[in-house]
Every structure is written in C-alpha cells, then in structure tokens.
Amino acid sequence: MTLVGACLLLTQRLGAQTAQLDAIIKAGPGALKMLLPVLDSPAMKQRHGFAPDDDMKAVTLDQPFEPCILTEAAMQKYIAGAEVQKSLAPGGKWYFPVISKGHTACWLSVFRRADGSWMADSLGMADWARVWADVCQDWPATNGFTPILVIVPSRQQFFFTVPQAKPPNLTLLVDRKSVV
Q: What is the DSSP string of 3-53?
C-alpha cells in the first residue's frame, strides 16, 4: 500500500468513526426522553441516582463513551503492570453520563440496532456512574488522560485503565460506598 493509500484509508476510518459518534450523540437526547418517564416517583429517582426533588426537565447528557470488553481468557493471562489495551475489544454499547445539578446521577446506555440506528437500552447503574465520574476527575482529559472503562463480563466486574499512566495499569473499579 502506498503512503497516499494509507492516508486515504486512515481518513476514511476517522470519518466513519466521527459519523458514528455524531449519530450516537444525536440519539442520546431522544433515548433519555424515552426513559425518563420511568422516574415517576421520588423512590425511582433515588434508585437512579437523582435527588427526590430533581427536575427531570433540567437533566443533561455528558459526552458518551464506549467501554471495552476484556475476555476471561485475556484476564487470566494478564500480568499486573502489563499493558492491557491490545487485549481489549469494543463493548458495543455506549454510555452517556446523565447530569443533574452539575453531578453525575447515572448512565444512559444506547446500542446499535440492525438497521444502523441507535436506541435506548437502559438508564441506571448510578453507583458505578458516580465512581466512574471520580476516575475521570482524577485522570482528567484536560491533562491529556483518556481513562478507559473495562468490563469483564464473566466476572461481572468493572476495571479501568489509563493508557497514559506509567506503569501500565488495570485497576478494579470499586464502589467507594462498599469500601467504607
């Protein structure tokens, strides 16, 4: 492949990724609007990470992200301090942090349908969303960090890695309430 061909291929891939991200971002508000009516009581609001008096009309979405998947086989081969990125696969679902009064309340997840459109999947995982918000605050994009949420489905566990951190890392995502 020529250098021009390689650049064209890279440009096409980046364009496809940008188009996909644009489609995901456009799908977010509609997906949120579809799921918010479930939060019809103070108890349901609290279960989803909101205060009982939160105004659901004022809720916003932050930038979506795609968690990665780490298989059990890859997890068993992982050695602490080793790079994990090469073993990660795209998760398929995208998560939007749902923001109320300036704080992350929960996640809205969307998935790609067979026709290529994006559809609401779920609204929830409030505890994990808040812990992930803490990770992103500790490793901010403004300082050049890009934390990656890693899911190990066979263990039903969340981890994270920060590619820019030295040494390489794979850290268990812990609900801080369960540690106290």
A: HHHHHHHHHHHHHHHHHHHHHHHHHHHHHHHHHGGG--SHHHHHHTT--TT
pLDDT digits (tens, 9 = 90+) for 29-72: 999 999 999 998 999 999 999 999 999 999 999 999 999 999 99
DSSP string, 66-96: --EE--HHHHHH--TTS--GGG-EE-S-EEE
- Tens-digit pLDDT profile for residues 110-164: 999 999 999 999 999 999 999 999 999 999 999 999 999 999 999 999 999 999 9
Tell me the DSSP string of 42-58: HHHHHHTT--TT--GGG
d(CA 162, CA 44) in angstroms, rounded, equals: 34
Residue 102: both structure tokens together:
């300036």
Full-model pTM: 0.84
Taking the C-alpha atoms of residue 32 and residue 110, their distance in angstroms, rounded to an integer, is 10
